[in-house]
Amino acid sequence: MSTMSMIGQLASGMLATCEIFVLTLVFSLPLGLLVAFGRMSKIKPVQLITKIYISIMRGTPLMLQLLVVYFGPYYLFGMRLSTSYRFTATIIGFAVNYAAYFAEIYRSGIQSIPEGQREAAKVLGYTKNQTFFKIIFPQMVKRVLPSVTNEVITLVKDTSLAFVLAYAEMFTIAKQIAAAQTTMMPLFVAGLFYYIFNLIVAVGMEYLEKRMSYYQ
């Protein structure tokens, strides 16, 4: 295999990795907020269900969750799904897993806001929605950004777990080429890609934290 051919295959894997990363954030960030609301709900059944969901997602391996999402429809309902479902199952698995982590981060951020601010907003005539989105939410975002950054960086590396569903992302392709050509170069390139990707994410999130800092 020529160098250009190898680079071309690895590039397609890089694109697949980026797709997993972006789509996971698109779905898990808002889903995590909904789960956080459920976790803080005064309705006991809703609170219990979300608490169990978070416990399962955080207490079991992501790899196992991906396998359950992919094979579950067949073993539970006898549904035969096409190979294209691999990508869908990957996104669903990552999204529901990371939503649980984001939910706990959001919850801690929301609960760290002094209760006096909610009471003051109520006195000023703010509705609950206005209080949350105009007063609580902006402060919560600033407080949880460092924790969210850690999870986002972890997500970059976790995208390699898509190999368990035989989805051809960066790490899977690199392993295949390395095995076929008996060379470590593809794995080295993959490692370099993950490092650069994480570096870009870290710099971007640090810039965002500075932009949102109270003291700037």
Automatic annotation (TrEMBL):
<dbReference type="InterPro" id="IPR043429">
    <property type="entry name" value="ArtM/GltK/GlnP/TcyL/YhdX-like"/>
</dbReference>
<protein>
    <submittedName>
        <fullName>Amino acid ABC transporter permease</fullName>
    </submittedName>
</protein>
<keyword id="KW-0472">Membrane</keyword>
<dbReference type="Pfam" id="PF00528">
    <property type="entry name" value="BPD_transp_1"/>
</dbReference>
<dbReference type="InterPro" id="IPR000515">
    <property type="entry name" value="MetI-like"/>
</dbReference>
<dbReference type="InterPro" id="IPR010065">
    <property type="entry name" value="AA_ABC_transptr_permease_3TM"/>
</dbReference>
<keyword id="KW-0029">Amino-acid transport</keyword>
<feature type="transmembrane region" description="Helical">
    <location>
        <begin position="83"/>
        <end position="103"/>
    </location>
</feature>
<comment type="similarity">
    <text>Belongs to the binding-protein-dependent transport system permease family.</text>
</comment>
<keyword id="KW-1133">Transmembrane helix</keyword>
<dbReference type="InterPro" id="IPR035906">
    <property type="entry name" value="MetI-like_sf"/>
</dbReference>
<feature type="transmembrane region" description="Helical">
    <location>
        <begin position="59"/>
        <end position="77"/>
    </location>
</feature>
<feature type="transmembrane region" description="Helical">
    <location>
        <begin position="20"/>
        <end position="38"/>
    </location>
</feature>
<keyword id="KW-0812">Transmembrane</keyword>
<keyword id="KW-1003">Cell membrane</keyword>
<feature type="domain" description="ABC transmembrane type-1">
    <location>
        <begin position="14"/>
        <end position="205"/>
    </location>
</feature>
<feature type="transmembrane region" description="Helical">
    <location>
        <begin position="185"/>
        <end position="208"/>
    </location>
</feature>
<keyword id="KW-0813">Transport</keyword>
